[in-house]
Amino acid sequence: MEPLKPVAAPRRVLVTGAGGYVGANTVARLLSDPAVAEVCAAVRTDEAARTVRGWFPGQSRLRLAVGELPSRPWDLHGLDTVVHAAAWISLRASSGPAARFDEINAAGTRSLLEDARAAGVSRFVFLSSQAAYGVSRPPPWTEDSPLAPETDYARSKVAAEQACLEQSAGGVPVVILRLARVYGAGLAMRWEEVLPKFALLTASGRPMTVHGGGRERVDLVHIRDVTEAIARAATRPALPSPLVLNIGGGATRSILELAETFRSQARGLGLTPPALDHQAAASTTVRQWGMELSRAAACLGWKPAVFTEEGIVELLQLALARPASPDAGYTPAPAP
After folding, report:
1. Given the DSSP bridges, would you call strands 252-254 and 217-222 parallel, antiparallel or unpaired?
2. In CATH, what number is assigned to the domain containing residue 82?
3. How far apart are CA 108 and CA 168, in angstroms?
4. 269-300: per-residue pLDDT in tens?
């Protein structure tokens, strides 16, 4: 691995997928960094651009760019760093989900990397997924563990990683971050995910559905920890390239343990703990996730700082106060 070129200050960073959960909160984290001169929030539509602008009123260091991969890429000239958070994760596609995953996640990333090389971008941070490892081998997985993607989404992420490695050899300095399951209070919340859904059910006193005895074990990483890792990967002056890092929670929890934590926190808040609705599992296979994090600690000086219980309390408090507009209940920390 070759050392990454130092990112020249003042730093100008483009974040793709800035209207999504991870992208939006990455923009907020970068705007809080006085060493970042400008953040360009790259979104797909004018409506998304207006939404992002509304999250950061009066922020002079924020610029909006509208485009789409792979057909309408964003202009990368004049930028120091690209954080590529945009990805297709939905199954809604008239052309078929597999084709859409490949078109946006794989081919789109390859196209963006080529543009980054042409524009002289000095660092490309790609957000991949723990799904690259599959679940056929027991965790914890290291960055050197064999990749065994099992879904169209995971396969497209692995293909995008391969494009990153190829472009790194061709002169584009690359950092790949494999993210665990991201959760926590933040902008563009996805309330249909497991923990936010448990928070809503607990707040309303409705039963939480637990499948297969809740034995599945998950690796959860808080959104604040994720955006901190991204910010360090984007701005740290000296890193090897290509660099692949696991970004996870540091411990695994079963779904049943998480449900019981919500019940315990409900008691602490004077609420009636919701009942558990136990359902049979669709499969006899008990999935387990988990990544080893020592390389991220060594290269970025990073480790997860938010305990799961703390994140659950935040979600529950947000669910209890949730207005009609989900994002209206969350305000990003102001930039210094």
Report:
1. antiparallel
2. 3.40.50.720
3. 16
4. 899 999 999 999 877 788 999 999 999 999 99
In a domain, 315, yes or no: no
Cα distance between residue 327 and residue 325, in whole Å: 6
Residue 153 lies in a domain: yes
35 belongs to a structural domain: yes
Between 332 and 177, name the one with better pLDDT.
177
Query: Which residues are CB-contacts of 112 (< 8 A; sequence separation ≥ 6)?
Result: 16, 69, 73, 76, 82, 84
Q: Is 134 left (phi over 0), alpha (psi -120 to 50) or beta?
A: left
Using CB atoms within 10 A of its CB, is residue 292 exposed (0-12), middle (13-18) or buried (19+)?
middle
CA distance 198 to 192: 9
Alpha-carbon distance of 205 to 271, in angstroms, equals: 8
**Structural domain that includes position 36:** 2-183+221-249+290-304
Question: Which position has the higher pLDDT, 76 or 5?
Answer: 76
The total number of structural domains in the chain stands at 1
Q: State pTM to two decimals.
A: 0.91
Contact 155, 101 (CB under 8 A): yes
Longest dimension (CA), the chain: 59
All residues at 6 or more sequence positions from 193 whose CB lies less than 8 Å from its CB, including other chains: 181, 183
- 280 found inside a domain: no
Written as six digits, the tokens of 275 are 């009942």
